[in-house]
Design goal:
Elements: H1 12-15, E1 53-58, H2 72-81, E2 86-88, E3 94-96, E4 99-104, E5 110-115, H3 129-140, E6 155-159, E7 164-169, H4 187-190, E8 213-218, E9 222-227, H5 245-249, E10 267-272, H6 275-283, E11 289-291, H7 295-302, E12 307-312, E13 316-322, H8 334-342, H9 346-354, E14 358-360, H10 384-393, E15 397-399, E16 402-404, E17 413-419, H11 425-441, E18 444-450, H12 452-460, E19 467-473, H13 481-484, H14 504-512, H15 517-534, E20 538-543, E21 545-550, E22 553-554, E23 575-576
Parallel strand pairs: 1-10, 1-11, 17-18, 17-19
Antiparallel strand pairs: 2-3, 4-5, 5-7, 6-7, 8-9, 9-10, 11-21, 12-21, 13-19, 13-20, 14-20, 15-16, 22-23
């Protein structure tokens, strides 16, 4: 299983609450934001290459639907088959997809989105505001437990005619537009399906989306997609023509004539259960690209002749979570918590757990975010002597048995939780590295690896842990309120560390509020300054999302992502330069 397949804390949002990915673009002004056109040139007709792009994937799909996608393979297919109101563009921007234009009122509370009147589902039915309302209200339903189950909990969505939708936010968010990249599902196909039956409904194997690619065939071992422009009739079976080069090089009628179409004749995913088998297929020349490999193996393949490793900077933070509730004096002060961080050799951790395919984190805010200020929260340097000095300054004592909080206190023992190696190899290895460093510092430290359900649902969600190594999905324009606000310690909240800080709370609120770029940057700088003072969690690294591609594939450009499927942001420009 890949890091992003795990239902651990990379998807803590699905188990615990809202991990804020609502904000992923620079600040938006509280005025009309007219739709911008895509800056990337695209061909006038689809399928202009001579064969499909073939990618090998570690893992396999289970349900290809925005409402039931679970694995990375699911999410990759959803990204290609379905569309959101907006989509990611170059340089951290957002561009129109199903939406034609949008605006926001002066309070930042009500967003109005107008859909394109030519938007169509792949069965020919029009995309309407009812589809948007259905999708969001399904995600909000108390009985729904799938992806993004709580991301829309404070949003009211209303249809106004066939092509206008309003979103009313309980709390204004400066970067709410990123939420509108949520893939939309067809109400006419799914509205009659009970919630508990959605994961097993045949729609997940034969999806109908509004995205640029149509899924013609899906098995446990392969998936085949063609551009929607090759579908001559709504619902037509084009699977027989997928392997025929001639049919793909002669474009059929375009279902959405006003929208850009891919260069690629199609995409074929081949699914593998074992990393070595996937790597062997790439070395044998059977694949144009590979995804989902462990970092070390991906790095190795990327060095092969005619291949390259493409690193997409991630916005998921791997961090050490300390239980800051009363009853844990071992984490009582920022100075003590900083000492724990100083004792971790993050450079060595990144090398061992991520094969160097990550950047060290000095702060919960990604260093590539426009809101990040390196001076506000400087990186804590690695140093065991500095860590020991800080602990002694706090009154701690070290002897042959370890560290003591006082003379009469027993030696302190630390238990570090992580997911199992099978569920999330990188987090498991990161925890191993933390345990090694803290043991070297003199602590009696044990590593306990747990299955995802027990780890996230029984231990983190209930606050019954001492230390945990976790993935936290942050985003480009990060909203840390759900993770650190005092109110989020309640049942279902994402504040699993139990921090209650009245100084921090208003800074969290101000940073997530709408405003000018200057105002929001200042708010984030103030927040980072307090994060440095409080040291509420111990940041380790922001791992990259990586793929290995042959040089014959042109077009892919790395940009910041929140999920591996975000790498398809520019798939319309991909093309195979030379056939095998």
């Amino acid at each position: 299983m890949t890091r992003t397949d795990s239902v651990v804390v990379g998807t803590l949002v699905a188990i615990l609450a809202i991990l804020a990915t609502l904000i992923g673009v620079p600040a938006f002004q509280l005025a009309v934001a007219p739709a911008a056109s895509s800056p990337s040139p695209v061909p006038s007709a689809p399928g202009t290459t001579v064969r499909p792009y073939v990618e090998g994937v570690l893992g396999s799909p289970t349900s290809v639907s925005p409402l039931t996608a679970r694995t990375q393979a699911d999410r990759d297919l959803v990204a290609l088959v379905f569309a959101g109101l907006l989509r990611n563009g170059p340089g951290g921007t957002l561009v129109p997809d199903l939406a034609e234009r949008w605006s926001v009122d002066r309070t930042g509370t009500t967003w109005t989105v107008d859909l394109r009147d030519d938007a169509r589902w792949q069965d020919g039915e029009p995309v309407t505001s009812d589809d948007v309302v259905f999708t969001i209200q399904t995600l909000q339903d108390p009985g729904y437990t799938g992806p993004s189950s709580s991301s829309w909990s404070e949003v009211e969505v209303t249809a106004h005619g066939a092509h206008r939708v309003t979103f009313t936010l309980k709390t204004p968010l400066g970067g709410f537009l990123q939420a509108l990249t949520q893939p939309i599902a067809p109400a006419h196909r799914l509205a009659s399906i009970p919630l508990d039956e959605l994961p097993v409904d045949p729609f997940g194997q034969q999806p109908i989306g509004a995205g640029p690619f149509f899924l013609t065939d899906l098995t446990d071992t392969a998936a085949t997609l063609v551009p929607v422009g090759l579908i001559s009739e709504p619902g037509a079976d084009v699977s027989a023509s997928v392997g025929a080069t001639d049919s793909l090089t002669t474009p059929g009628p375009t279902r959405r004539p006003s929208r850009a179409q891919p260069y690629l004749a199609g995409i074929e995913f081949r699914y593998f259960a074992e990393p070595d088998e996937l790597a062997a297929a790439f070395r044998a020349g059977q694949l144009d690209g590979v995804s989902g490999l462990p970092p070390a193996l991906a790095a190795e393949l990327g060095k092969a002749e005619g291949a390259r490793l493409l690193r997409y900077p991630g916005s998921t933070l791997s961090a050490v979570l300390l239980n800051l509730r009363p009853g844990h004096p071992e984490f009582a002060t920022p100075a003590i918590r900083t000492a724990y961080l100083a004792a971790i050799d993050r450079a060595a951790l990144i090398k061992s757990a991520y094969s160097g395919l990550a950047v060290a984190a000095s702060d919960p805010i990604p260093p590539t975010s426009s809101m990040f200020n390196a001076k506000a929260d400087p990186e804590v340097p690695y140093g065991r002597s500095a860590a020991s000095k800080a602990l002694r300054a706090a009154g701690w004592i070290r002897d042959s048995k370890g560290w003591h909080l006082g003379k009469s206190k027993p030696a302190l023992k630390l238990e570090v939780l992580s997911p199992t190696q099978e569920a999330n190899r990188s987090l498991y290895l990161a925890a191993e590295s933390v345990v090694k460093d803290w043991t070297t510092l003199g602590f009696t430290t044990t590593h306990v690896a747990l299955p995802p359900g027990e780890y996230a649902g029984e231990r983190l969600a209930t606050g019954t842990f001492q230390v945990a190594v976790a993935d936290l999905r942050i985003g480009l324009d990060p909203d840390l309120y759900p993770l650190l606000a005092s109110s989020q310690t309640l049942t279902g909240g994402s504040n699993v560390i139990g921090i209650q800080d009245p100084v921090l709370d208003p800074l969290l609120e101000k940073a997530r509020a709408p405003g000018s770029m200057a105002a929001r940057t200042a708010a984030y700088t103030a927040l980072q300054t307090q994060l440095a003072k409080g040291r509420y969690l111990l940041p380790l690294a922001f791992p990259d999302e990586v793929v290995v591609l042959r040089d014959t594939l042109e077009g892919p450009v790395a940009r910041q992502v929140t999920d591996g499927s975000d790498r398809f942001w520019d798939v319309l420009t991909w093309r195979l330069a030379v056939d095998r």
